[in-house]
Amino acid sequence: MTEGYEIIAEVYDKLNKDIDYSAWADFVEASFERYLPHKPSLVLDLACGTGSMTTELAGRGYDMIGVDGSEQMLSVASERAYVNFGEENEYRLPILYLLQDMRDFELYGTVGAVLCCLDSINYLTEDGDLEKCFKTVHNYLDPDGVFLFDINTPHKFRNIYGDNAYILEDEIDGQSVFCGWQNFFDEKSGICDFYLTLFSENEDGKYVREEEHQRERMYTFDEIKNALQNCGFEFLGASSDYNFGEINEKNERWYIAARAKK
User: Fold this and answer.
1) Which of 126, 111, 142 is nearest to 46 (CA)?
2) Which of 113, 116, 121, 149 is nearest to 257 (CA)?
3) Contact 111/145 with Cβ under 8 angstroms?
4) pLDDT of residue 91 exceeding 80
5) 48-63 pLDDT tens trace
6) What domains can you pick out in the chain, each with its CATH number?
7) In what order do the strands lie in the sheet with 253-260?
């Protein structure tokens, strides 16, 4: 059994095809307009995964840096950075991808904004991980730069994840993919373990079975807010959706904005 995103990288996007990255990027740009005096020229996509948001924003004119701890996910992201305009015309979007830990990454300088999408913050599971990440983000943000991220809420951990099991099915390049997903949530520790079993169809019609373990940690709103303030951020707000809706206890995801004070 592997850890992280080793086996699922190639099928990650298909299994998450319902995510509207264009609408999410619209929300990101609206957040820039709300919280920044001008459009940031350089943006970090932290825990960028397969680069869906990274390439979406790069296509809108932002110089992007993508940081992720999975070599397999970054491999997919690097391929996505190329845009084809016919057989002989190929253009690579201006994206720098770096294989680094989101808790302790290094950049060549500061950036105007940092994004961290798709509950990547919840993957910070050990005591002190949240503060390590936030301090590093603060270090590489311009003064008054913004940090935009989302988290899975306590409601989602308790009622959607819980000890539930899910089945995900899709077809990739004409071949079937089947993913069985079993959760185990510990209320005391706030840890939810995900055990994924992936069956991928080969060209000969036979299936290959692979298993992977992932883990997320539940954070309360107060824990997130306090950690931000302890790491030098000004808390700006939290939204329940892309329209800056008010949050409540039954939301499955919160979108949070903070400003680096220096």
Assistant:
1) 111
2) 149
3) yes
4) no
5) 999 999 999 999 999 9
6) 2-152+219-260 (3.40.50.150), 156-217 (2.20.25.110)
7) 95-99, 63-68, 42-46, 111-116, 141-152, 253-260, 233-239
**What share of the chain has pLDDT > 70, as a percent?**
89
Q: Is the dihedral of CA 211, 98, 153, 223 positive or negative?
A: positive
Separation of alpha carbons 147 and 43, rounded Å: 10
pLDDT greater than 90 at residue 179: no
pLDDT number for residue 162? 95
Q: Read off the pTM.
A: 0.91
CB 246 within 8 A of CB 240: yes
Task: Kindly calculate the radius of gyration of the chain based on its CA atoms and give it in whole angstroms.
Answer: 19
Specify the 3-state DSSP secondary structure of 35: helix
- Grade residue 12 by pLDDT with cuts at 50, 70 and 90: low
Paired strand residues for 84: 90
